[in-house]
Amino acid sequence: MRGPDLLKKHAGRLKTRVGAAYPGSHAVFRGHDLHRDLKDLDWVELYVFGITGRRLTAAQIEMLHAIWVNTSYPDARLWNNRVAGLAASARSSANLGIVAALALSEATVYGGLAGLRAISFLQAALQRVAAGEELETLVLAEARAHRIYGYGRPINSSDERLPWIMELARKLDLDQGPHLQLAFAVERVLLPHYPQLRMNYAALHAALIADMGLSAREYQLLRIPTFLAGMPPCVVEAAEKPPGALFPTPCDGVAYEGLAQRSWSAQLVE
């Protein structure tokens, strides 16, 4: 069934497996009464359950908390935080500023799309290696033909978050998963040929989440709040300053390379 017939089948009704709200009565969340059955769930646990329909272990939930905590940088110079701060500086609403900043967090090189491509590569590479392909050949061919996301980082190739996450992974016995082991093996292949391509946070947390059994699409939804906690401090601080005082740029601070100043004459036409 396609086209108008398909749409007609869905017109005037919502068929759903994820839940429904019954105002004045109750709310259903993936087959459970939200207030009665799920009231004691950790918020992140509920968030994951909503995406996947299954419950993660306590150790996995603790790891997800740590992944988000360790990348919550309240620095308005960062590309997404800057948008949240500038919105507050322009006296827009905090909600609009943070939503816009979250949208920008999907950046290709160092945001959500980088992580999405990292988990997609790791999952595909694991399958190909299991099917008999040589990892070194696979990785070097991918590096030459495309870009292996999750390796390399601007400014400084060492990622300060990795030691803290790996310390927790070892404590929680989450450090032996196949995707995580593969991620480090990929780094070992890359470094002799590309010394600047050290593993970054995208590959690490993508590997950890892949080992939790999430698909690339589920990962993309799960990582939405990754940078969120660093944004409100930027909004608060920008709002405390005079309007427009965050990153003001004087005219003489603009490097202009266009046409030189020109004289204009006007002629009155009657």
TL;DR of this structure?
This is Citrate synthase. With 270 residues, the chain is mainly alpha-helical. 50% of the residues lie in helices and 4% in strands.
Question: Which features characterize this protein?
Answer:
mainly alpha; 270 residues; Citrate_synth-like_lrg_a-sub; Citrate_synth-like_sm_a-sub
Tell me the strand percentage band: under 5%
Mean pLDDT: 94
Element-level helix/strand string:
HEEEHHHHHHHHHHHH
> Which residues sit in consecutive blocks of at least 5 with pLDDT less than 50?
none
Distance between the termini: 68 Å
Across the major sheet, the strand order is: 1-2-3
Rg calc: 24 Å
Q: Tally the helices.
A: 13
Helical residue percent band:
40-55%
The helix/strand class is: mainly alpha
Q: How many domains?
A: 2
- Characterize the main sheet: 3 strands, antiparallel
Shape verdict: globular
The total strand number stands at: 3
